[in-house]
Amino acid sequence: MDALPNVEISDVNSHSLGVVALDSMTNKEFNSIILKKDTKIPTKKSEVYCTILDNQTRIDIQVTEGEEKNLEYVHVIGNTTVDIPPYPKGAPIEVFFQYDDNGIVNITVFDKTAGKMIGELKIKRQSNRSIDEVEEMKRKISQTEIQ
Fold it and tell me: In the chain, what are the domain boundaries?
């Protein structure tokens, strides 16, 4: 039997990542997932949120890890507060998650009304495997025979 040629192994995020958001219908906070579990990395995704009060001047960005909408079952792994001009309720704010090959998640907050970046946060994700362990797994898989 021949070994598998050109096996490609892709890294993925192990848990969903998102932010704490407010449901405008229920007025309750929930986990709003931006990067779903098992998303191939590197990747970049975003979601648009809106201010909840007239003349709101600050936004608290709480970065979450977990699959559930219920905040009791997720972890807040980072946070930052950004200042905004006193917009009317409903002003759009876009939150970007960019997950790179080095395990760093860059969170960028973009004011869509003003058209500019207003904040950022970096989170270093820990890998479950060392580079040597990943290379050894690649070597073993490439030598696997299929029957």
Answer: 17-142
CB of 22 within 8 A of CB of 50? no
Whole-prediction pTM = 0.78
Q: Which CATH architecture has domain 17-142?
A: Sandwich (2.60)
- 114 pLDDT band, cuts 50/70/90, is very high
Q: Which long-range contacts (CB under 8 A, 24 or more apart) does 133-141 make?
A: 134/9, 137/9, 138/7, 138/9, 141/4, 141/7, 141/9
Pair of tokens at residue 133: 């362990």
Residue 111's nearest CA partner among 83, 89, 88 is: 83
**CA separation for the pair 15, 17 (Å, rounded):** 6
Q: Are the beta carbons of 52 and 10 closer than 8 angstroms? A: no
